[in-house]
Amino acid sequence: MIHRGFYERYFISPFFRDFKNFNGKESRRDVLRTFMAWGVATLGITGVLLGQVGLLGPEVGFATFYTLGGLWLAWSFLSICALLARYSKSGLENGHTAEEKPPVVMLGIDKLLSTVCVLFFVLGLLMMITTLNSGELNMSTGSGEYDEDNPILNRDKVQEEAIFNYLNYDETSVAEKDTATVVEDEDTASVAEIYDPAAVSPVAQEDTTYIE
Q1: Which is nearest to 39 in space by CA: 1, 74, 7?
Q2: Cβ distance 107 to 7 under 8 Å?
Q3: Do 27 and 84 contact (CB within 8 A), yes or no?
Q4: Helices vs strands, H then E, count in the chain
Q5: Given pLDDT bands bounded at 50, 70 and 90, which one contains residue 179?
Q6: Residue 60, Cα to own-chain centre: how many angstroms?
Q7: pLDDT (tens digit, 9 = 90+) per residue, 115-129?
Q8: Are 82 and 21 in contact (CB under 8 A)?
Q9: How far is residue 14's CA from residue 82's CA, in Å, rounded to a whole number?
């Protein structure tokens, strides 16, 4: 017996194969399962886009999120309109069509895809939150207030001091005289003390030494 996968039937077919088919028929059960498959897939796509916010930063990440997310919602809107049009043409009271279709089962790959989509959303959300809050390390003590005097945060804190400051000094003030560097070399001796008439230069004596 041939089986069809859950996402092949309720996600790939409505949103990629029959996105412009307005003439078929869909049962209520198929419509509900299609919305469920679309929700899980959209959850995974949202997680990937949120992860881009964490990787690329808020500016580029949010621009990518809004652009690609808007394109996916526009594509989904077209496919959902075609799905609802096919459902409105189903005239059976019990909501099932008379067309024979292969039974749809939840294959292993479908379970794996569901798990991956949920993990993508959780991890992408955590990456975005981490990036947005990475500029500030908030180690609170549980009191609800940020402790700026936390010794753990201030252990490696470097305080910068300005080399030049722009204080308004009083330019009219005169610096005090530094008496420690002043050397007095004034000559206080009088003229009489300098000139001594008793000091007579000795007369040169004749050298009587002869060399034979």
Answers
A1: 7
A2: no
A3: no
A4: 6, 2
A5: low
A6: 11
A7: 999 999 999 999 999
A8: yes
A9: 8
Contact by Cβ (8 Å): 31, 87: yes
Which pair of structure tokens corresponds to residue 112? 């794996």
Nearest CA to 14 among 33, 28, 34? 34
Task: Measure the CA dihedral 89/90/91/95, to 10°.
Answer: -150
Structure tokens at 62: 């949010």
- Name residue 27's amino acid: S
In angstroms, rounded to a whole number, what is the distance separating the alpha carbons of residues 117 and 121?
Answer: 6
Between CA 151 and CA 157 the distance in angstroms is 10
Residue type at 87?
Y
What is the pTM assigned to this prediction? Answer: 0.58
Residue 91 pLDDT > 90, yes or no?
no
Residue found under tokens 């308004």: 168
CA dihedral 71, 75, 76, 80 (to 10 degrees): 150
* Token pair in block for residue 140: 């609170």
Q: What phi, psi does 4 have (nearest 5°)?
A: -110, 140
Q: How far apart are the first and last CA of the chain?
A: 155
DSSP letters, 135-147, are T------SSSS--
Q: Give the pLDDT band of residue 72 (cuts 50, 70, 90).
A: very high
Look-up of token digits 């390390």: 137
